[in-house]
Amino acid sequence: MKKLLIHGGSVVTDTTIERQDILLSVTGEIEEIHPKIPEKHGEEFLDAAGLLIFPLLIDCHVHFREPGLEHKATMETEARAALAGGVGTVCEMPNTDPPTVTIAALADKIRRASKIAGCVIKFFFGVTEDAHLHALRELWTGTSMELKRMKHHCAGVKVFFDHSTGNQKVTADLAGEVFKVCGELKIPLVAHCEDPGINQTSARNQKPETRNIALHSLMRPPESEAVAIERAIGLAQKCQTPLHIAHLSTTQGVALVRAAKKSGVSVTCEVTPHHLFLTTDDYEELGTLGKMNPPLRTPDHRTALWEGIADGTVDCVATDHAPHLLAEKKVADPLSAPSGVPGVETMLPLLLTVAAGQSPQPNQKLKTKNQQLSYSDIVRLCFTNPNRIFSLGQDGIQKKAHARLVIIDPSVSSVITPVNLRSKCGWTPYEGWETTGKILRTVQ
Ligand code: DOR
Ligand code: ZN
Question: Which CATH architecture fits 56-391?
Answer without folding.
Answer: Alpha-Beta Barrel (3.20)
